[in-house]
């Protein structure tokens, strides 16, 4: 099996009793762990991120292991054998083998705490959701519980397929399928709307991740990628074989499929979402208003597989026809439409709906092949921060750049970014005034494709700035000589010719290290996280510059 941490840093590969820990899915192994029995479940919790092992033999217990060395820092004895049923934040949900008892285990630092809970009915399934919430599927009801207070929050009215069934989470969605069925249901959690997708072959397994919008459906004829936002089906060209361990590695919006065979030293990976992944195109026609939507990809996939089976080369034919699943005969190729127009139009429509006060508006998905996607990818924005960036830029496009903190929190489903406590604030991208939030003009300039106002960019492609501030003594050199020397050492530079604070932000947004050829009187504020500034100093440099470490 393959398990991954919620931040995408750690990957756990289990083969029998042997467990290997890999950093970001690449070898060699950072550390190893030997289990006492194969009758055990593994999962990552966090933050802070740690590995929990739920053992049923020789003793019923939960053990906490800390990366990167997998030191056992806590042990919790259980009243009887229990299985891992779900994960939400720092907590796991345990279920007794007879499905009559359930409990929460919290990993707090280097300790474990057990909290039995009683939903009042035998449990059919458990799904861990965002924001420390758990969905319990019982005989006659679906209830969402708060894992912190151990109390029910609300009851859902989703029309799930009848038992036996498999149910799990995806980013903002719930999915369900039945053993041996060729269809999977996706439910949008914001409004409970179901979508039915036909795959055309029996679904043996579903490879999912709670933070990923993509499901990987394992069928006898190959792997199928289902994007829950776009509702598109595509085949995955991967070195996959029957019985191979699979998992998803999620780092922000970048999602990769990992797989490893018995003889492989480290997992292979295939992009599913984000950088390098196929574009998740929505159907040409809008979804009907009925209770279920049958995706256009399903029939084409079934037809393609039947044709491939008749020819005797199913996998090769599947890979060759991957593009035909998501495409329609009259759809123009992506290159035929101007790049700057296609990705901004859905954002403008979303922004207009948000300004009108439309209920339950969905934040659009933005890929990496445009200005916003490239910026989010370069700054390593997590999913919530990217959704906040999309929302605020959409409002900028419709001329209403400021939104109330409460309204932005409702759109995002959390308060951190809206309150200025998240990544966008740490990167100095937000402006907060009078209870409203907007993007700084430097950010919208970059996303609009406008030229920077306070810097002159020197060099080629964007690079990771040298973080922090450093001093470079002039030693009688000209500005041109200093620029040439620094460009050779640091790559792309941003020579500041305006306000230093503005130039520092613009430099970071353009993937460059800022260079101040004249020392500013005071340290620029705010200072974007990971931003870099080189101050050229002479004998009259102010004290804060003289105290900087020299550039090495």
Give the helix level as a range of percent. 10-25%
How many H/I helical runs? 13
* Count of all domains: 4
Tally of strands: 35
Indicate the mean pLDDT: 85
Oligomer category:
single chain
Portion in strands = 35-45%
Distance between the termini: 45 Å
In short:
Helices cover 21% and strands 36% of the residues. It is an alpha+beta fold and 552 residues long.
Name a few traits of the molecule.
alpha+beta, Methylamine Dehydrogenase, Chain H, 4-stranded antiparallel β-sheet, 35 strands
How would you characterize this protein structure?
It contains 13 helices and 35 strands. It is α+β, with helices and mostly antiparallel strands and 552 residues long. The chain has four domains: 1-121, Methylamine Dehydrogenase, Chain H, CATH 2.130.10; 158-330, no CATH class; 339-447, no CATH class; 454-546, no CATH class. Helices cover 21% and strands 36% of the residues. It has a five-stranded mixed sheet. It is globular, with a radius of gyration of 26 Å.
Provide the fold topology.
Blueprint: E1 2-4, E2 10-15, E3 18-23, E4 26-34, E5 40-45, E6 50-55, E7 61-66, E8 71-77, E9 82-88, E10 91-96, E11 102-108, E12 111-117, E13 123-129, E14 133-138, E15 142-146, E16 151-156, E17 166-170, E18 173-177, E19 183-188, E20 193-198, E21 205-207, E22 214-219, E23 222-227, E24 232-236, E25 245-251, E26 254-260, E27 268-273, H1 296-311, H2 314-320, H3 322-326, H4 339-342, H5 344-356, H6 371-378, H7 383-397, E28 403-404, H8 405-412, H9 423-426, E29 430-433, E30 436-439, H10 441-448, E31 455-458, E32 468-473, H11 479-490, E33 493-496, H12 500-509, E34 513-516, E35 532-537, H13 543-546
Helix pairs in contact: 1-2, 5-7
């Amino acid at each position: 099996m393959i398990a991954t941490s919620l931040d995408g840093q750690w990957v756990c590969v289990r083969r029998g009793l042997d467990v290997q820990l890999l950093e970001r899915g690449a070898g060699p192994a950072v550390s190893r762990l030997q289990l006492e029995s194969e009758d055990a479940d593994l999962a990552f919790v966090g933050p802070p991120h740690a590995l929990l092992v739920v053992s049923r033999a020789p003793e019923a217990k939960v053990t906490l292991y800390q990366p990167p060395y997998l030191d056992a820092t806590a042990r919790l004895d259980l009243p009887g054998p229990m299985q891992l049923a779900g994960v939400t934040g720092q907590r796991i949900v345990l279920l007794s083998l007879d499905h009559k008892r359930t409990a929460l285990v919290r990993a707090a630092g280097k300790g474990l705490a057990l909290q039995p809970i009683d939903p009042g009915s035998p449990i059919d399934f458990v799904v861990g959701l965002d924001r420390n919430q758990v969905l319990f599927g019982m005989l006659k009801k679906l209830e969402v519980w708060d894992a912190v207070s151990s109390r029910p929050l609300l009851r859902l009215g989703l029309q799930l397929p009848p038992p036996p069934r498999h149910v799990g989470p995806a980013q903002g969605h719930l999915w369900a399928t039945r053993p041996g069925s060729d269809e999977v249901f996706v439910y949008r959690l914001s409004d409970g709307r179901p979508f039915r997708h036909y795959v055309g072959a029996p679904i043996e397994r579903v490879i999912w991740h709670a933070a990923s919008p993509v499901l990987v459906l394992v069928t006898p004829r190959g792997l199928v990628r289902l994007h829950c936002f776009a509702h598109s089906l595509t085949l995955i060209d991967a070195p996959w074989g029957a019985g191979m361990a699979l998992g998803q590695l999620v780092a922000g919006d970048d999602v990769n499929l990992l797989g490893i065979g018995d003889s492989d030293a480290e997992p292979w990976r295939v992009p599913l979402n984000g950088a390098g992944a196929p574009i998740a195109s929505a159907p040409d026609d809008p979804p009907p208003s009925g209770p279920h939507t049958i995706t256009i990809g399903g029939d084409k996939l079934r037809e393609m597989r039947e044709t491939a089976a008749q020819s005797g080369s199913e996998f090769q034919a599947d890979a060759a026809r991957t593009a035909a699943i998501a495409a329609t005969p009259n759809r123009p190729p992506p290159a035929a439409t101007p790049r700057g127009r296609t990705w901004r139009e859905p954002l403008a429509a979303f922004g207009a709906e948000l300004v009108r006060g439309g209920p339950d508006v969905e934040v659009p998905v933005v890929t990496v092949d445009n200005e916003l996607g490239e910026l989010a990818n370069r700054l390593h924005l997590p999913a919530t921060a990217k959704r906040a960036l999309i929302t605020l830029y959409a409002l900028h496009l419709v001329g209403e750049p400021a939104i109330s903190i409460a309204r932005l929190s409702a759109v995002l489903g959390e308060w951190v970014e809206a309150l200025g406590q998240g990544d966008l604030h740490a990167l100095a991208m937000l402006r907060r005034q009078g209870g409203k939030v907007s993007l700084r003009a430097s950010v919208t300039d970059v996303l609009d494709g406008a030229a920077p106002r306070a810097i002159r960019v020197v060099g080629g492609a964007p690079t990771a700035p040298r973080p922090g501030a450093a001093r470079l003594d002039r030693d009688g050199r000209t500005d041109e000589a200093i620029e040439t020397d620094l460009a050779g050492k640091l790559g792309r530079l941003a020579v500041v010719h305006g306000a230093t604070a503005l130039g520092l932000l613009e430099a970071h947004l353009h993937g460059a290290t800022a260079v101040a050829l004249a020392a500013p009187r005071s340290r620029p504020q705010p200072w974007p996280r990971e931003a870099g500034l080189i101050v050229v100093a002479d004998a009259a440099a102010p004290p804060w510059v003289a105290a900087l470490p020299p550039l090495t």
